What does this fold into?
Amino acid sequence: MPTPRRRIGRFVMTVAIVVLGAACGNRDLAVSTTLSTSTTSTTVVSPTTEPPTTTTTTTVAIGSLLTSPPSAPHIQVGLNDVTLILSLAGDLIGHVQPPLVGPEFYQSRQTRLTEEASAFVDVPEGCQVEAVLEAVSTWRVVCRQLTDNPDPTIGILSADGTVEVIGRIPPGPAGSMTLGRWGDMFDRGDEVLLTQFSGECEVPHAMFIVDGVARHVSGEGVWDDAPVPNSFAYGWLPDDRALVWTWHEAGCGSSDPEPGLYAYDIDGTRELLYPVRDFPIWGRIMQQG
It folds into this structure.
């Protein structure tokens, strides 16, 4: 099973600055002013543009360079070339560079755990081991389908080969079929699970399993028509809220107009902890350094 303030100066790394060019031959003057640690305003003055065009673009505040992550509990967010270090409240502490090694990718982890468990139990066809609950006794498995259930399920595999289903994608409209697979999974300790699901077109969605049924962390049902932002589950915060990153630029699925790291209650209410538009490669909660 995955086990998973002080501010030390500021430094702003610009992710993208959009400069609007005018007609060929015009000499535009671009003036860039840092307004805060999260936005940069770029004003382009052109002889042929009236009034001047202003665009606001996103930057990522990475803070001071740290020699190592803190020993106190914190959040790590792996970007392309740095690892952000945040407090559990979402305050920026700094960054580590070169970036830290992130957690094992769920597909390789499930493959490895399934091979290891196969020495002790027959893992049902279509299922993979997601976590070892008790050594040589019980395993949590994720299944694309079981014989009596065409929808993706989560179950407890016992040493005798039986599977008790503890979570599922609810059945859809008549004739529909759920395509996808389960990814990372986080147990809160009270039969509520935070899970990652990759659906059709590899659309990522963080979901809660409550009373055995999956629903989006935002509160919508799996088959509701309301658009749900693409999202990634990173674990449980100490206050029993889920740490989730929502995406701002979705090729498939829906985008979040206010992307970033959020703390989600199981009723779907959320609090923005830290705005991050850049694509995190991974994220995790560290209970200790």
User: Anything to note?
Assistant: The chain has a mean pLDDT of 78.
